[in-house]
Amino acid sequence: QVQLVESGGGLVQSGGSLRLSCAASGFTFSRESMNWYRQAPGNEREWVANIDFSGWSTAYTDSVKGRFTIFRDNAQNTVFLQMNSVKPEDTGLYYCYLPRDAGYWGQGTQVTVSS
After folding, report:
1. If we measure between CA atoms, which residue out of 33, 20, 10, 7 comes closest to residue 104?
2. SS3 12
3. With bands split at pLDDT 50, 70 and 90, how would you rate the model's confidence at 108?
4. In whole angstroms, what is the distance from residue 6 CA to residue 114 CA?
5. Is 30 left (phi over 0), alpha (psi -120 to 50) or beta?
6. Hey, which residues does 70 pair with through a beta bridge?
7. Tens digit of each residue's pLDDT (9 = 90 or more) over 75-106
8. Burial class (CB within 10 angstroms; exposed 0-12, middle 13-18, buried 19+) of 109
């Protein structure tokens, strides 16, 4: 069965960096695009970034462009989110998402940015 396990979250100061990982299993990772979403307290879940199956094509929500980078290692079945120059508004629960079938979510990893 499909499993997505996020890690790498934590507490970071504003302006700092963090790298999130999502380890995938149960499907052919190298054939699927992947996404990162986030949800701040009291807010709806929002899309953050997408990467195609090859890693060559990426897309970002406007608020993270130039600060976050999504990339993947198909040999390790892992997708990453490098977060640089983080801001307090980046605080939230970050989820990995596989957009296949009805969609699959990981359990999330908490990112807290202090000002």
Report:
1. 33
2. strand
3. very high
4. 21
5. alpha
6. 81
7. 999 999 999 999 999 999 999 999 999 999 99
8. buried
